[in-house]
Every structure is written in C-alpha cells, then in structure tokens.
Amino acid sequence: MDTDLLKTFLEVSRTRHFGKAAENLYLTRSAVSFRVKQLEGILGVELFERLRNNIHPTPAGERLLGHAEAVLTAWERAKQDISLSQQHTSQLTLAAGHNIWDAYLQEHLQPLHLGLPGVALRTEILTGTIMTRQLIERTLDIAITFEPPKLDDVELVQLAQIELRLVSDQMGCSLNEAQLQSYIKVDWGTAFNIMHAQEFSQLPVPVLHTSSARIALDFLNNNGGCAFLPDALISAGLADKKLYLVEGAQSIKRILYAAYLGKSERLAQIEQAIVLLVDKG
Questions:
Q1: Do 38 and 14 contact (CB within 8 A), yes or no?
Q2: How many domains, in total, are found in the chain?
Q3: What is the CATH number of the domain that holds 63?
Q4: Does 135 reside within a domain?
Q5: Which of 26, 119, 162, 188 is deepest in the core (most CB within 10 A)?
Q6: DSSP label at 105?
Q7: Is the CB of residue 270 less than 8 Å from the CB of residue 264?
Q8: Whole-angstrom Cα distance, residue 88 to residue 27?
Q9: pLDDT tier for residue 88 given thresholds of 50, 70 and 90
Q10: Domain for residue 8, yes or no?
Q11: 171: domain range?
Q12: Global pTM?
C-alpha cells in the first residue's frame, strides 16, 4: 500500500477538513479527496462521514487511526534501519512522556550517544497510550514515563526520583502568600494531580495550565507567579536569584521508569542504554 494514502488519511483525521489537510500536505483539495477515496476503495469501507463543514471519522476510520500510525512508524524505522551509515550497526528508539525530556533526559542524551558506539538513536515525545502500543508493536524500544504500563511482557526499571518544587519569582514567599500570586499549573500526571488536590487545594485557579514545564518556566519568568518545576529547570534560576523556593511548601516526588520488552531482539543495547540512563546520584 502507498504510505502517502495513510499520511493523507491521518492529516484529514487531524484537521477534520479536506482543505486544511491539502494545505498542510502541499496538495490540491481534489488530490486529498482522491487519495482518501483510493484508501476507502482498498479497504472497502467509508472512512469519513462528510456532512456540511463537519468531517469526522466513521467507526471504521476510528479503528484505522492506530493502525495507520503504527504502519507509518514501522515504515520510517525500517527505512532508517536499512539506511544506517557504516558507523552504525543498529538503531534504538526511545520515547518519553511530556516534560520528561526537560526534567531528566536532556542531560542524559550525550552520555547515551557516547556510551552506545555503533547505535543510532531515535527519540520521540509520546503519550502513555501510544508508548504502550508501540512497545507491544515493537516499534519502540524504551518507554520512559512516570506511569509505566503494567503488562506481563514489559520489564520495568526505576531510573530516578524527580523532585518537583514550588518556586516563585518573589523572595521569601510563603505558601499562604503564594495564594495571592498567579499560579501556573504543569501537568505532571495522575499521581501528581491527586497529591496536588490533597495538599495544595489552597492555591488559586491557574492563570495558565500547560503540559510543558518549559512553557511554564518561560511564562513565570516573563509574568511572575509560582509553579511546580523540577530541579533540572530551576537550578540556574535559584542560583541567579531569579527564582525562590516557596517557604513551607513540601516538594512532590515522582518516580521515573524505563519500560521495555524483555524479549526484544535489541535487548543487549536496551540494557546498556538503561545502565546509562539510571540516575547515579
């Protein structure tokens, strides 16, 4: 099957608009429509319900979404594996949830590169659901997450404990005073949200709610306020007296895990990578 048909299907599904999909793919609208009809002809089902200004996938189209993503991911990986340079004998694919790169993995990328000679690295930022599916489909080697999948064939290794601290741009700010500041809430996962609701219900309604710690830090620096952020992002600000720990606010700790298939054909490289990823502190 022509992978361009799947790419077009996914873009129409994402935009819910043939015209916008055509713009994003640098195609004419008729070309996008033709590709979708081709794919529908191959599969023998309708993939979209075409109502006036309201295009959305049919039940068959919804079922195809995950398969289309998996096929394209596998195809991209196959192309990269085949075209590896003479200096690389294999490729290792790692994915992490939102915020984990900034909170932990950024400083581990160089040790991974240097410590895995002959291995080409591929990195992704994915949701937990997609990481789990790609692990099972063997298009992902290592998933790095706060909330690992609980599956029989998946091995888990604890990498580190991430400490999230409530910081403010105001020196000497107490937890009570933080209630009067703008609050920026970062999404650190289900366990964080539970503890946050239990221990910090007095914090105000967020002026910004984001899944990106980097966006939260930039917003805090530009506009003031307070937010829960990891040591990796706040250490420089604390040293430069641009950020301050909120007095009386306990930190919230999250455990970071690496998940991988125990029967992977790249098990030796995976285990070597995890040794390099484990926090030695």
A1: no
A2: 2
A3: 1.10.10.10
A4: no
A5: 188
A6: G
A7: yes
A8: 36
A9: low
A10: yes
A11: 161-254
A12: 0.70
